[in-house]
Known about the structure:
Pathway: Energy metabolism; oxidative phosphorylation. The chain is an all-alpha fold.
Amino acid sequence: MSFLTGAIRQAAAGTSQRAMMLGRTTAPLALRQTAARCYATHQAEETFDAFNERYVSFFDGVEDLFELQRGLNNCFSYDLVPSTSVIESALRASRRVNDYSTAVRVFEGIREKVENKSQYEKYVEALKPVREELGILLKEELYTQ
């Protein structure tokens, strides 16, 4: 009987840990508050240069599509437009994991993040050598209407 009780306790503990990793709020209140404080403190101290450096190094180390898409979602969720160095690193990562559609969608994300069309065109112009090297077309070039 004790073996069965121990197995049930381990399964319950594993479920709680998985829920915490998935961001569900089954963690004790003290743990949630501590994690929120640490996250808020970390984000408040980060400069734009540190942000760019963090994401360039992240995309340089990407090894699969899931990591790439997760990184792009996180990077584009901030209230700023990533620098061209971050975008270049993300484009190279998308071609490294052999996902052409994600490379095209990076430019769609830029178009949504910038304030006006001229800023988007400046990004496209600045990244033109990388696009040509990697063979990436824009959505506008793929679907001419």
